[in-house]
C-alpha cells in the first residue's frame, strides 16, 4: 500500500505517494524525473547512484525513500546554482575526467561530500574517497586530477 | 604536414558539460508516453528442453499488457554480431529469440510487458514452465570428448569451428631450431563492465514499422539484426542513435535478447516497451571468451624465431555469438602476425559448452594471445639469456615493410622500435635486476609486454562491414552540423571527429555540432569497435568536410573573382591564397548560398546567380584503404608481498605509435582506462560459476572485483610516438584496443622479475602467487 511521504530534494519539498519498499533512487529517477542519478547496478556495488544525504555520500539504491524523510537530499541537479557549475563539475570538465560519463555524477557527489570535510587531502585520501565508485573508462587518473584541482582552487 | 589549428590541441570534450550536469543523452533516460516495462523469465537450468509453457495466468494479472512465449516468436535462426551481415557465410546462426531448448542458466524462455516493472516481475512468477533437464557440460575439453552431451546437432563433439592456418614448413622449422619451448597458458572469463546497463525501448506503429532506442555500439547493425530475426525488411526498422552510451568496450557489439523481445512485446501490446537489464542480466549475457593456448616455439641461436605453432581452445558457451571471430582475431592478430617467423602454424577451436554466451571485448581475442606470446618470449629470453627488448626487435616487422595481412599496403608509419627505446628510457628499464633478487618480504620487479602490430578492423575481411560515412552541413551563422552514425561510447569519438571536421573546414571546434542521427537519415558506418573510428570514420568526416569546402570555394569564387582552386579556408574566413586581405567570412559565403532569389545591395535589388544557391553540404561514404598498424609497448613495476601473495602495480609507462594524436587528453584517457581493464584482467577479475548448475556466482559488483581507484597505480605515463600515417586523417592511426592487450603479460613478466615465479593462468591471484612460492 502506498504511503504519502515528504522529501526535501535540492532545497525543494516534494510530497510523494510511495510503496514502502521504494528506494530513494527509484523516487529520484522514476517519480521526479531527476535522471542525473544513474542506476548502474541497483545493489550497492557501483556508486553511479551516489547522492548526498545531509551532506554525506550515500548509494541512493541502498536507501529506502521513507528513511530519507526529514533529511536534506542533494542530487547532481542541485549542486549548480543559477547555471553556475559547482567547482567540481568545472574541474571534471577541465581535467578530462569524463569519458562515457555514466559514473560521473556519482563521482562528483562522492568527491563533494569528501571535500566538505577534507581540507588538503593527499592523492591517496582522494583515491580512498572515491573507492566506492566504479569507473570503467578513465582508470580514475584524471578523476583524481579533477578532485585535486577542485580542492586546491577553493 | 602544415600547422594545424584544432587537430593535436588539448581540447575539452564536447559532451563533458552535459555529462557533469546529469547527462540527458543516455538510452536509460528515454521515456515515451504509454511506455510499458518488459521483464524476461530466465531458465534456472543450464541445459533443458521445454516441454510445456503456459503464460495464461500471467496474462490475467492486472497491469500486464503482453506475454511472450516460444509460439509467439518467429523461429528464425540468427547471429547477433553487428559487424557482419546476417547472410555472412562465416557467421554461425545458432540463436533464436526464444527457443524450446535452453543452453545456459539464465537463457530467456518468456517475457512480459506491464505498466510497471514490479507487475511485470510478479507476472513472471505466474508463467508455468515444465523443463526436461538435459546433461550439461561446462569445460571445452570435456565437451569435445566422445559421449559428451551434444549441445547442437550441427556441431560434432561440440566444435563450432576449427580453423587452421599455416605458412612455411613447420616440421623443417622445428628441425632447424636450436631450442624449442612448449608452454600452455590459460585465460579466464571476464566482463566488460560498461556502467550503463543494456537497455532498449521499442515502439511499434501497428503498421509493421518499429522505432528503436538502444544503448548500442552500432545502429545499423541493430537495424539489420533485428529485421532479420523478426523476418521483416530493414526499412521497417528505424534505430535512433543514442547521443552517447554509458560505455560499451565491445559488450554492446551484438543484438541482445532484449531488443527483439521488446519489439515483439510492443507489436503485441500496441504500446512502446522498455527493457532495462539488471546488472545480473548484464553479467550473464556477454563476456570475454576464455582461451587455453598451447605454444610451441622454435628459436635459433641468434634469437630469431624459426618455427611457431599454437593451438587455441576457446570456450564460446551456449551460442557462438562472437566466438568464431574472436578466435580468428586471436589466431591471426594475436599470434601469427605480430612477429615475423618463416614457419608458422596456428589452429583453433571454438567449442560449445553450457556456459554463458560470450561477447565482444576490447582487443577481441588478442589479450588471450598476448598473455601467452609475451609471457613465453620472456621465458625464452630468461632461459637463453637474451635481452628481451633486442629479442623482440629482432623478430618484429619494420617500417616500410609490406603489411603482413594486406599485400597491397605498406607499413608506411610504424615506429615499434622507437616505442621500445623511448618507453624503456622513460621507465628506467636499464636498472632491471635479475629475477627474484630483491630483498625483504615485499619484492619489487619490472617487466614489459608489447603488441608490436595491431590489426583489428579495416583489412578487408570478406564478411565484415568496414565503410564509413558522414554528412556535413554548413549554417548561416558559420557553424557546422556533423551527422554520423558512429556512436560515442565514451572514447570521445564525437570530439575527435568534430576536431577533424573543424580542421578541414578551418573553423574552431566550438563551431561543430554533432547532430541527431538515425538509420533513416545518415549514411552507414561500421560499428564503434576494432580501434577503427578515428581512422575510418575520421577519413569519411574529413572527406565530407572537404566536399563541403569545395562548394564553399565555388560560391566564394564568384564573389571574390577568384578561381576556387586559389582559395583557402582559415579561421572561418575564405581568402585568396597569398593575399589574405582578399577574403570573406565563411558566414557571408553560406548566407549568399542560402539567400533568397534577390539580394539587397546598396544600389537596390540584385538577383543572385542561381549557381551560387543551395545549402552547402558535404557527403562521403567510403571504405578504408587498409589498417595502418599502431604499435604498443607497456612497462610496469610491481610489488609482490611474498607473505600474502598480494600484487600491487606501482607505476606504468606506456609507449604507443598511434600516428598523429588528434586529442591528447582523450588519448591519455584511453590508455589509463585500458590499463584499469588490463589490471583487472591480470590480477582480479573472474566470472565464477557453480560447477553443477552453471549459475553465475559473481554476477554483481560485490563479488566481481574490478579495480577501484585504490588498486590503480598513481603513476601512469603515456608516451605517444607520433608517426604520420599517410592514409589516415591528418596522419592519425588508432589506439583503443592495444591499451588493454598488453597489461596482463607486462604484469605477469614483472611478477616473474620480482619473485622468480611464472604464473601461466589468469587472473594471477594471491593464491597462485603463494602456490608458486611453495607456501600453499
Task: Name some characteristics of this structure.
heterodimer, A: 154 residues, alpha+beta, Ubiquitin-like (UB roll), DNA polymerase, domain 1, 31% helix, B: 776 residues, Aldehyde Oxidoreductase, domain 3, Aldehyde Oxidoreductase, domain 4
Describe the overall structure:
The complex is a heterodimer of chains A (154) and B (776). Chain A has a 5-stranded mixed beta sheet with strand order 2-1-5-3-4, with helices on both faces. Chain A folds into 2 domains: 76 residues, Ubiquitin-like (UB roll); 66 residues, DNA polymerase, domain 1, CATH 1.10.150.120. With 154 residues, chain A is of the alpha+beta class. The model of chain A has no long low-confidence stretch (mean pLDDT 97). Chain A starts with a strand and ends with a helix. Chain A is globular and about 45 Å long. With 776 residues, chain B is of the alpha+beta class. Chain B folds into 3 domains: 163 residues, Aldehyde oxidase/xanthine dehydrogenase, molybdopterin binding domain (Aldehyde Oxidoreductase, domain 4, 2-Layer Sandwich), CATH 3.30.365; 189 residues, Alpha-Beta Complex (Aldehyde Oxidoreductase, domain 3); 207 residues, Aldehyde oxidase/xanthine dehydrogenase, molybdopterin binding domain (Aldehyde Oxidoreductase, domain 4). Helices cover 27% and strands 23% of the residues of chain B. Chain B contains 19 helices and 29 strands. In chain B, strands 3-5-1-13-10-11-12 form a 7-stranded mixed beta sheet, sandwiched between helices. In chain B, strand 15, helix 9 and strand 16 form a beta-alpha-beta unit. Chains A and B meet through helix 2, helix 3, helix 4 and helix 5 of A and helix 1 and helix 16 of B.
